[in-house]
Amino acid sequence: MAEETMPSPLRQKPVYRFAPSPNGLLHLGHALSAFLNNDMARENGGRFLLRIEDIDQTRCTPELEQAIYDDLGWLELDFEKPVRRQSEHFDEYRAALEKLIEAGLAYPAFLSRGETKAIVRTFEAEGGLWPRDPDGPPLYPDIDRQRPQAERAALLASGRQHAWRLDMDKAIRAVGAPLFWQESGDGETGQIEALPAFWGDVVLSRSDAPSSYHLSVVLDDALQGITHVVRGMDLFHATAIHRLLQQLLDLPQPAYHHHRLILGADGRKLSKSEGSTGLSALRAEGASPSDIRRLVGLV
Ligand code: GLU
Q1: Which one of 213, 218, 234, 237 would you pick to mutate in the ligand 1 pocket, going by the greatest count of ligand atoms within 8 A of its CB?
Q2: How far is the CA of 234 from the centre of ligand 1 (A)?
Q3: Which of 24, 109, 168, 226 is placed for a possible disulfide with 163 were both Cys, Cβ 3.0 to 4.6 Å?
Q4: How far apart are the C-alpha atoms of 74 and 70, rounded to whole Å?
């Protein structure tokens, strides 16, 4: 066999990606992620891709997407083109969702955010403690999961707005074995056991967006051949959901590196509305790309 065609995992180039959402301006936390992906790709002879995570068409705008290109260009981060934009791939996410529906692992979820909140509030007013996911929000009530098939079908036929949610218990049973991921980040490292049950019936598509972050991120990482996911520590626990979806959809698993977060003066995670740590604001104040590297603790 000619050397170029020899299938050897050793010959595979590592592939990294930076995957911001254009629903706000990039801040120092994004700069750290982007620099780390870029630098690791360089050091390991790998590729560096950019992915625009714009499934939420109500919050993402072309202006904010342009601001991402401007900020990354200014930081001299050289990603490959073309850039993958999630809004151009809704059909692929839909096809994966269909697979999960056909396997009986997803159900239509009709409760609005307000209805869910009211259920939780009533339960807690009566002294109960509603279970919450690792990020804090309450788990989705089991009303829709328990709904009889005929009622489900009637609601769907009536055109009632709905999301699709993963039946977490069934999904875990379908996989049947504990799942792990390889972690090399700034917290716990090594083989980490994925514990998706803590997230409850996660959303796979919304009534106003044809996919969810969790579903599209695992599909895109697979479709783009991502071998190393380098992102903020705030997504460490969500990796359990990603490992589960990879397993259910028969997708390869990348290695993960969750890096430290850049905190604001109040000790909290930076938010997109925080002007003073926004990259464009810092640039306007005269900061240079190497100042940004220093500000995120990379030099
Ligand atoms: N789009 C996500 C964000 O902006 C990042 C997703 C990821 O890196 O997996 O927070």
Answers
A1: 213
A2: 10
A3: 109
A4: 6
